[in-house]
Amino acid sequence: MTTEQGRDTTGTLYVVATPIGNLEDITYRAVRILGEVDLVAAEDTRHSRKLFARYGISKPLLSYHDHNEQQRQPELVERLQAGKNIALISDAGTPCIADPGYRLISSCHAEGITVVPIPGPSAVITALSAAGVSTERFAFEGYLPQRAKARADLFRQLNGEQRTLVFYETPHRLAATLADLVEIMGAERLLVVARELTKLYEEFFRGTTAEAVTRFQQNPARGELVLILPPSAQGPQMNVREALSKLLNESDLSRREAVKLIAKEYGLPSSDVYRESLSLTEEEESHE
Ligand code: SAM
After folding, report:
1. Chain center to CA of 76
2. CATH code of the domain containing 45
């Protein structure tokens, strides 16, 4: 909106990054903007109050999350059009990175409302910065699918990817995810698990996928996790079924010997590999 004097009276939407753990990880600019805006749209207003208390910020908070995004959006756009300045924050890190916000921002662009990013932490960049792997090219895959089949399909699709892969994962699904990684991408792939970044129990696990299975079996992971998988120097790894099929059909090894070899190579229980070999033979025979 422009007045007769030509002054733009439309408000600005600030997209403000907040800490991912340690409350000191916020920029001077972010604190100033949060203290200056008319309203802060936050994912969880109770959570954000702790940050506000630490920095003496007392601005009205309005909830904006996955479940009320559609209803809140026109309301926020209207307030911006009426000249209010609004900051968008999420519970942790940068809004829109595995967090809600892009629909509101898209509406603002469509309505000619100025959108200003206030950069700061994000778990993906924080993890990559200290993982010690090549970051020249990387692909951020966000949260892994919750369903086992969808997750395994994604890993198959990404097998052979030449960019470093970054995933967000929750601790209760980590064991199943690591088992899939070993089965589909191989036991010897380098993996970094960045845990509880910027917090008291911050930890970087670096090892092979098979070592990660053992490590997190013995000591289940807690807290927040980022998984980093640099590209394999050997190119795509055959999955267990393909490797079994090759050995059973193209070598003189007995089923027992082939199963033993694959179980060792992939760090899997022999009984699982044996079952897989039977189902493979059954499938091959049904196609004959
Ligand atoms: N917007 C956030 C960002 O910029 O990173 C991400 C929000 S997403 C809902 C939350 C996920 O990010 C967690 O489940 C975890 O995978 C990752 N994450 C957030 N904070 C983290 C931390 N301190 N350490 C490790 N991973 C973290």
Report:
1. 27
2. 3.40.1010.10
Between the CA of 116 and the centroid of ligand 1 the distance, in Å, is: 22
pTM for the predicted model, two decimal places: 0.84
Residue 3 above 50 pLDDT?
no
Angle at CA of residue 166, ends 123 and 223, nearest 5°: 50
Percent pLDDT > 90 in the chain is 77
Q: Which of 40, 31, 34, 37 is nearest to 11 (CA)?
A: 37
d(CA 199, CA 90): 18
Domain that holds residue 74: 12-120
**214 within a domain of the structure (yes/no):** yes
Looking at the fold, whether 22 and 116 belong to one and the same domain comes out as: yes
167 Cα nearest atom in ligand 1: 16
Give me 96's structure tokens: 């829109």
Contacts of residue 30, defined as CB under 8 A and 6 or more positions apart, other chains included, come to: 16, 17, 18, 118, 120
Which of 206, 229, 252 is the C-terminal boundary of a domain? Answer: 229
On whether the CB atoms of residues 76 and 58 are closer than 8 A, the answer is: no
CATH no. for residue 148?
3.30.950.10
From 199, 197, 190, select the one nearest 228 (Cα to Cα).
190
* Residues framing ligand 1 (Cβ under 6 A): 20-21, 90, 92-94, 97-99, 122-124, 168, 170, 194, 196-199, 224-226
Kindly give the distance from the C-alpha atom of residue 249 to the centroid of ligand 1, in angstroms, as a whole number: 45
Q: Which amino acid is at 69?
A: E
Contact status, residue 64 vs residue 42, Cβ threshold 8 Å: yes
Residue where a domain terminates, one of 92, 120, 148: 120
- pLDDT at residue number 262: 86
Give the Cα separation of 181 and 159 in Å (integer): 10
